[in-house]
Amino acid sequence: MDQLRKWDLTEHPAAYKLVTEGDSAFLVEEERAIDLVRRPGQEVIYSLADVFASFENMQGRTVADFRRPRPHLEVKENRLGGWPTIQGTRVPYDAVAKLVAGGVAPAEVHRFYPTVEISGAADAADFHQEVVQIGGRAA
Predict the structure, then answer these.
(1) What three-state secondary structure class fits 56?
(2) How far apart are CA 23 and CA 123, in angstroms?
(3) pLDDT at 138 (0 to 100)
(4) For residues 3, 5, 8 and 11, what is the CA-based torsion angle, rounded to 10 degrees?
(5) Which burial class, exposed, middle or buried, applies to 49 when counting CB atoms under 10 A from its CB (0-12, 13-18, 19+)?
(6) Strand, helix or coil at 115?
């Protein structure tokens, strides 16, 4: 609270959003967050939402939005710790991608994972190819 007093805050305290992370607390405003404890006054430049959002890399390639990497894949923070899964399932995208890479056609993935549709299997394989390329390894 002492750090909050140092800022010229003119609104009622309930108007401000405070979040904690480890041993610090942050005052969160529209596009920024200010550290109040560990490094008082230090502004946070990026949030994880910014990091996972789509962007253009230095080679001019658009990197996938890791919050919604493909139309039939989804990322939910409470599902498998935020790991990408096939839409509407708890099936990890990489488990399906490994099947496809091993020679199982997307149309046959349902034999192993009955809830996975062809479109989800194809998106998993496609996303896996992009992840491997970004990681610098050959597919």
Answers:
(1) strand
(2) 39
(3) 44
(4) 110
(5) exposed
(6) coil
pLDDT band at 128 (very low <50, low <70, confident <90, very high): very high
- Read off the tokens for 19: 């979040």
CA distance 100 to 94: 10
| Average pLDDT along the chain | 84
Q: Where are the alpha helices (DSSP H) in the chain?
A: 2-6, 48-52, 93-101, 118-134
DSSP letters along 11-42, please? S-GGGSEEEEETTEEEEEETTEEEESSSSTTP
Whose tokens are 């949030």? That residue is 47
Which pLDDT score is estimated for 47? 65
- How long, in residues, is the chain? 139
For residue 73, give the H/E element and its range: strand 73-74
Question: For residues 48 and 129, which has the higher predicted lDDT (pLDDT)?
Answer: 129
pTM of the model: 0.61
CB contact at 8 A, 41 and 50: no
